[in-house]
Amino acid sequence: MCYDPRHPRVRPDHNERTVSLRMERQRRLFAADRPLRLAAMLEEVVLDRPIGGSDVMRGQLEHVLQLVEHENIEVRVLPTAIGSHEALVGPFTVLDFPEAQSIAYVEQVNGAIYVQDQDQVNGYTRTVNRLREVALSPEQTVDIIHSRLTT
């Protein structure tokens, strides 16, 4: 399989489908009627990792600040000072639905899996709740992002 540095976790034959799904999710996030709710946690280190150079990083940080102005979007930073935590094993998403059971989406080196076993999903939900307890508040997150833009 060919490694694509732009999408290292997406197989080349899945690129189109993945982009399409992400574009639809983005459309739903900003829909006037019943927009999706997004709560995201970012490790502080990603605010400083120079992916794409300083102009790209500045644009990304400014974009996050624009996103958090929407009432359905919450972003929190996990400070590096907290040290080790349960999410260090890799990225995951808990998807909650009003009329269906929650599922967890877990990224792996060669793809991703959807976890539907509710005991396992509950474990991911507990991890999110514990991380939320040690994460910066939304207001502190905005401040720390602004601090990166002024240096």
Structure description:
The protein has helices at residues 15-29, 54-67, 118-134, 138-149, and strands spanning 38-43, 73-78, 92-97, 100-108, 111-115. The strands form 2 sheets. The protein has a 3-stranded antiparallel beta sheet, covered by helices on one side. Strands 1-2 form a two-stranded parallel ribbon. It is globular, with a radius of gyration of 16 Å. By secondary structure, the chain is α+β, with helices and mostly antiparallel strands. 5% of the residues are buried. Strand 1 (38-43), helix 2 and strand 2 (73-78) form a beta-alpha-beta unit. The longest helix is centred in the last third of the chain and has 17 residues, at 118-134. Helix 2 (54-67) packs antiparallel against helix 4.
User: What profile does the largest beta sheet have?
Assistant: 3 strands, antiparallel
> What order do the helices and strands follow?
HEHEEEEHH
The parts where pLDDT drops under 50 for at least 5 residues are 1-5
Characterize the overall form. Answer: globular
